[in-house]
Write a structure and sequence with these properties.
globular, mainly beta, 7-stranded mixed sheet, 11 strands, 4-stranded antiparallel sheet
Length: about 120
């Protein structure tokens, strides 16, 4: 089974940057599409970004377009979410999810990490 683990969250100031990482020890992680989702307090979980299993195709959500990017290094079994120009509204728990569908829908992902908190102060 694939057990993703997120890391890299923390507290940053408005306009700051963070890089989140999602790793899994299982080598089959390389064959999965990996997505990032987030959920702010009192709000529904929303799509952030997704990358194909090969890393050849990626997409980011409208709310983070131009500020966030996703990449992966399959040699390290790691997917990254690079976040720049962070805003207070980016404050949320960020989740890494793996699946085979390369989907924007959270219901299509089978394996989820526990999440990492990102807090952006105003």
């Amino acid at each position: 089974q694939v057990h993703p683990i997120e890391s890299g969250g923390g507290l940053v100031q408005d306009g700051g940057s963070l890089r989140l990482s999602c790793t899994a020890s299982d080598r089959t992680f390389k064959s999965h599409a990996v997505a990032w989702f987030r959920r702010a307090p009192g709000k529904q979980r929303e799509f952030v970004a997704v990358i194909s299993w090969t890393g050849g195709s990626s997409f980011v959500g409208d709310s983070v377009q131009g500020r966030f990017s996703i990449s992966r290094d399959n040699a390290k079994n790691t997917v990254y979410l690079q976040m720049a120009s962070l805003k207070p509204e980016d404050t949320a728990v960020y989740y890494c999810a793996a699946g085979y569908t390369n989907s924007y829908d959270e219901n299509d992902y089978e394996y989820w990490g526990q999440g990492t908190q990102v807090t952006v102060s105003s």
